[in-house]
Amino acid sequence: AEAETSSKLLADWLNSEGPEVQMAVDGGDFGRPVTAAGIRDKWRNLRSWVDEHRSRKLIEQHTCLAYVGDSPYGHVEVNVMQAVDLCNNPINAFCGKEHNFAILGNIIVVPSSRGKGIGSEMVRRACNFAFALPSMPEIVVVLVQEDYAAARRFYCRAGFVDTDLTMVKGGGVIFRLVAHTRAGAEVRLVEERDAARLAKWLVAESDALQLAVDGGDFGRPVSEEGVQNKWLGMSEWCREERSRELLSQQVFTARQRGCAIGHIEVGVMKSINVAHNPVNAYCGLEPFALLLYVYVLPQCRGLGVGTAMVREACECARRTVAKQVVLIIAETNTKARRFYSRVGFRETGVSVDKMGSQFLLIEYSLAPNIT
User: Tens digit of pLDDT for each residue in 33-43?
Assistant: First the structure.
């Protein structure tokens, strides 16, 4: 956008808002009172400012207006940068030096257009615009005011993931970093146990999805304590409730460009009494790996994240003493059954009852069937 026009519009829009919205939009960067000249000064000096105050190199700078027809309804900035010093601030540490990253800033939609999907579409297009730039940023991040719950929900719906990193701006106001990764970016499994995060993810889901993920193992309502207790008591639970010996237990967070976007566990175990339950009977006395508590954030579904996460977990299982890799899914969950079929699982015909619901045992094909 032409700088004079966009700076005047942005100044007018911000000055029509209260101080809370002004702070949420610009983090105090434009000074007070907000003026078009002050905004242009900030844009003009951005390169030297990020170098001096944020230890980053500015690669590209774009100021954009969102139009519906001929009328401007919103504003967003797309600035592509590269971190120089990772210790300078949390954003640098999170994004790393290896790849460029884009920051969306000074995002605002005029009040009369809020709640109509214009903001979501504007942010979505800004992300697509950023990923298509010549500088090829690998991740798009936004700083969202910590206590602005509506904004945090908005970015979650727009496909952003909460990174759990915070930064203080504007005289003590805390902002939280949310991130959006390029579709198809590599998914890594990291061994870590964050019961609070997993519980928070599951509590936000429906009862049916909670049951599909944990089979009721975390108790109801799902809580951090319930998740922790399950992890701590897994060995005893396997022996007493399933007549198995737990050989190893790996709890993974799935991360994409540093963002926590999913959860999966690999329990390697061996049956003590094969007649105790259908899973033991099927797997016999050889060690087997059971995938547990598979979950992907809603905004990351349909992007290949789940497939990459499950396949990587299966490869981790194959590197253990396990002779089989199995998983239990709800019989009525036809979507999950199709998904796991595509990943490489086959249905065994074994049915398992959990909390009065029927589940199916499926097995990962360690080698493809060639005919």
Answer: 999 999 999 99
Instruction: Give the span between the Cα atoms of 344 and 364, in whole angstroms.
Output: 6
Phi, psi (deg, nearest 5) at residue 303: -115, 10
What's the token pair of residue 257? Answer: 């460009």
Whole-number pLDDT of residue 100: 95
Cα angle 318-324-330, degrees, rounded to a multiple of 5: 110
Q: How many CB atoms lie within 10 A of CB 200?
A: 14
The residues of the chain scoring below 50 in pLDDT are: 367-371
The alpha-helical segments, DSSP class H, found in 187-332 are 195-203, 207-214, 224-232, 234-242, 278-283, 305-318
Q: Are 81 and 103 in contact (CB under 8 A)?
A: yes
> Looking up tokens 């979650």, which residue turns up?
156
Give me the count of residues in the chain.
Answer: 371
Phi, psi angles (nearest 5°) of residue 363:
-130, 140
Alpha carbon distance 38, 60 (integer Å): 20
Residues 6+ apart with CB under 8 A from 43: 3, 7, 61, 63
DSSP 283-320: HTTS-EEEEEEEEE-GGGTTTTHHHHHHHHHHHHHHTS
* Residue type present at position 118: I
Q: Which residue, chain included where needed, has tokens 């339950």?
A: 277
The per-residue pLDDT for range 219-243, each reduced to its tens digit, is 999 999 999 999 999 999 999 999 9
pLDDT at 181: 85
Provide the residue type at 232 as one letter. Answer: L
What pLDDT score does 1 carry? 56
Query: Distance between CA atoms of 360 and 342, rounded to whole angstroms?
Result: 16
pLDDT of residue 370: 28
Q: Within 10 A of 88 (CB to CB), how many other CB atoms are there?
A: 14
